[in-house]
Amino acid sequence: MAAPSRDFTAPTLQLLTPDGELRPTPEAEAYLPLVEALSDETLEQFYRDMLISRRVDVTGANLQRQGQLALWVPSHGQEAAQVGSGRASRPQDHIFPSYREHVVGMIRGLDPVKIMNLLRGVTLGGWDPAENGNFHLYTLVLASQTLHATGYAMGLQFDGDTATGDPDTDAAVLVYFGDGSTSQGDASEALVFASSYRTPQVFFVQNNQWAISVPVSRQSRSPISLRGGGFGMPGIRIDGNDVLVSYAVTRQALEEARAGDGPSFIEAVTYRMGAHTTADDPTKYRTDDEVEYWRQRDPITRYRAWLEARGASAAFFEEAEAEATDVAADVRARLLDATAPPRSAIFEHVYSEPHPLVEAQAAWLEAYENSFEGEGQ
Amino acid sequence: MSVETVPSATATTGTDATADAVRGVQTLSMAKAINAGLREALLADPKVLLMGEDIGPLGGVFRVTEGLHAEFGDKRVLDTPLAESGIVGTAIGLAMRGYRPVVEIQFDGFIFPAFDQITTQLARVHLRSEGTVPMPVVIRVPYGGHIGSIEHHQESPEAYFAHTPGLRVVSPSSPHDAYWMIQEAIASNDPVLFFEPKSRYWPKGPVDQDHPGTPLHASRVVRRGTDATLVGHGAMVATLLQAADIAAGEGRSLEVVDLRSLSPIDYGPIVDSVQRTGRLIVAQEAYGSVSVGSEVAATVAERAFYSLEAPVLRVSAFDTPFPPAALETEYLPSADRVLEAVDRALAY
Ligand SMILES: Cc1ncc(C[n+]2csc(CCOP(=O)(O)OP(=O)(O)O)c2C)c(N)n1
Ligand SMILES: [Mg+2]
C-alpha cells in the first residue's frame, strides 16, 4: 500500500518579478487583466502609498527611540502586501486589522497619529471606525479580530447589504492576521463560521516568516494557504512583496465575496524587515543572510523598477519623495502635541450606562487628587 | 391559566401592541418565563438574534428557546457551529453591526472557551472605541448544581465575570424576575452575563407580564425579618427562604435579600437590612474564596461596621472542584448549613 503523501505544496502567485518585470507565474496569469485595467494614476498611487508608509514607519521607530512612544510596531517590508490588499477594498468594505496594518489604515484614511497615540500610551483604541474608512480598531489579542470580522460579515448578509449585484454598494469584510496568529483557535473558529455562513469576507494572512522569534515552520508544516481548502474556501498563496498580485488577488476575492460567492483565504508571503517591535532584538534568532535575501526582494524597489520601465517620470519620483518627507514630518509634529488624557478617562466609557461602583471610584479619585491641591508649592 | 401558556402571537404584533396589551399574571416555570421574555424581545426589535448550540429546532438542551426557531426562522434563531469562542466572537462582530445578539452557552462549564472573547474583547469594545461602539450582547448561562449531572455541568462561574470591568452580571431567582430581567438585559447597551439557575428552571411561579417591578440591577428584600440578614442570588434564594421558614418555626426572624445583580451590586437594601438586624450571612453555590460573597462581606463590613453585632459569615460550596453528583447535597450549601451559620452569628 502506498503511504499517503506528506508533501504539501502550493504555488506562489506572482505578477512582478523581484527585478521588476511583469512576468506572471502560470497561476497568476488570469489576474493580469485586473492590473491592466488600472490607470497610471492608480499605479502611481500604489507607489506613493508604499513610500509614505515606509517613511512614517521610520518616524515611528525614531519617536520610540526618543522616548515619545512606548513601542513601535514596524511595517517595513510588508508595504506591498498591505497596499495591494488595502487598495483592493472598496469604500463600503470593512477592514479588521491586527496591529501592524498601519499602511492599510492610512489608505483607508486613518491618521497615523491615532495609531501612534495608541503606542504612546494615550489611548486604548483611539478612533471611530465609522469615521475612519470603516477601519476597525487594532486588536492585540491575536486572532480575536478574525471572529469579529466574521460576525460583522454575517451582519452584512442579514442586512442584505451584500450580494445584491451592485458592486458599488455591496460590502465585504477584509480581515488581517499574521502567520503566528493562524495557530490561534479563534482563527480556525472564524474560518469555520465564515465557511458555514458563506460570509462576504476575505481572510488575509501576512506571513512575514516570524511570530516574534518563532519561525513560521513552527506554526505550520504545510503552506498556510492550504488551510483555506480544509475549511471549505479557496486558499491562495501570493508573493506578498508584489503589490500588483496582492492587489489583483484580493480584488478578485473581494468581488467574489460581494457577489455572494463566499469567503476566501489569502496567504501573502512577505517579510518583516524590522524587529517585531522596538522592544525586540531579531539578531538573537535570525541571520543577516536571511534579512539580506529579503532585502533583495524589497517591495518598493521592485515596483519602482517596473514603474520606471513603464516610463514614470523622474519628476513623479521626486514629488513622491517630497510628499513622503512632508507627511512624516507632519505626523511627527502632531504626535508631539498629543497630551495625556484627563484622569476621568480611566472611568469614562467602561460602561455605556450608569454603573455605581465605577461612578463612586471616579468621584473618589477626583476628591483624592484634589486634596493635594495647593500642597508642596 | 395554563402553565404552558405564553403570550399569543396575535396579541403581540409589535412594540406598541406589547406596551398596551394587558396580559395579567400567569403561572410559569423559569424556563418558560425566559422563553416568553426572549420572545417579547424578538418581537420588539428585529435586531435581536439568538445564537447558540442546539437552540434551533431542539429549543436548547433545557428547551428555553423552544418554539422560537419555528416562529422566527433561522435568521433570528441561529444554530451556530460548535465553538463557544466563535459564538461570542461573532456576536461581538454582529453587535458592531448594530445587532443585539443573545448567546446561549449550553452549560456553565463550557463558557471557558469563550472566556477570552468575553473578558478581553466584549467587555472592552465600548471603552476602546471611546463610547462609539456599544456592545448590547447578552450571554445566557444555565448554571449551578442540584441537577445531579456530570462534571462541568454544575458549575457556578459568575465571579470570574463579576470581577471583570465592562461586564454586567445578573441572575434571577424567580420566573417573574427571569421574564423581566432577560428583557432588560437585552435592552441594555452594555454586555450582560445572564446566569440562569438550572435547578430553578422547572418550579413554577407567578409572572406578572404587565408590571416589571424591580429594576435589573437592584437587590431586593424578599422576606422581612429582624434577627439576621441572609443574602444570596439565583438558586440560593430558594434555599435561604427555606432556611428562614425553618428558623421561623424556631422563633427566629430572618430577613432574606435577593442580590439579583452581581455587577453592579446594589448595596442599599443590604446595608439597610444589616443596620436593622446587625447580622449578615452571605450564601452562594460558588466556591467561597475570592467570590461574590467575599465582596459582599467586605463591602458590608466597610459600610455597616458599627451596626454589626457579629462578623459577616459566608456559606459557600467548598473550595474544591464540584464533586461527583452523589455528593452534591453535602457539597452545596443547604438550609441547614445556612442555619448553622445563623447560630454562629447569633452566638456573638
Ligand atoms: C493571544 C496572544 N498571545 C500572545 C501575544 C503576544 N504576541 C504579540 S505579537 C506576537 C506574535 C504574532 O505573530 P504573527 O501573528 O505572525 O504577527 P506579526 O507580529 O508577525 O505581524 C505575540 C506572541 C498576544 N498579543 N496575544
Ligand atoms: Mg508573523
General description of the model:
- The complex is a heterodimer of chains A (377) and B (348).
- Chain A has 377 residues and is of the alpha/beta class.
- Chain A is 45% helix and 9% strand.
- Chain A has a six-stranded parallel β-sheet, sandwiched between helices. Chain A has a two-stranded antiparallel ribbon with strand order 5-6.
- In chain A, strand 5 and strand 6 form a beta hairpin.
- Chain B has two domains: 16-208, Thiamin diphosphate (ThDP)-binding fold, Pyr/PP domains (Rossmann fold, 3-Layer(aba) Sandwich), CATH 3.40.50.970; 220-347, Rossmann fold (3-Layer(aba) Sandwich).
- Helices cover 35% and strands 20% of the residues of chain B.
- Chain B is globular, with a radius of gyration of 20 Å.
- Classes of the chains: A alpha/beta (377), B alpha/beta (348).
- Chain A binds chain B through residues 123-126, 128-130, 136-137, 139, 141, 144, 146-156, 158-159, 185-186, 189-190, 192-193, 196, 348-353, 355-358, and chain B through 49, 75, 80-81, 83, 85-86, 88-99, 113, 116-117, 120-121, 124-135, 165-166, 168, 188-190, 263-266.
- The structure holds thiamine diphosphate and magnesium ion.
- Thiamine diphosphate is lined by residues 100, 140-142, 178-181, 208, 210-212, 272, 276 of chain A.
- Magnesium ion binds at residues 178-180, 208, 210-211 of chain A.
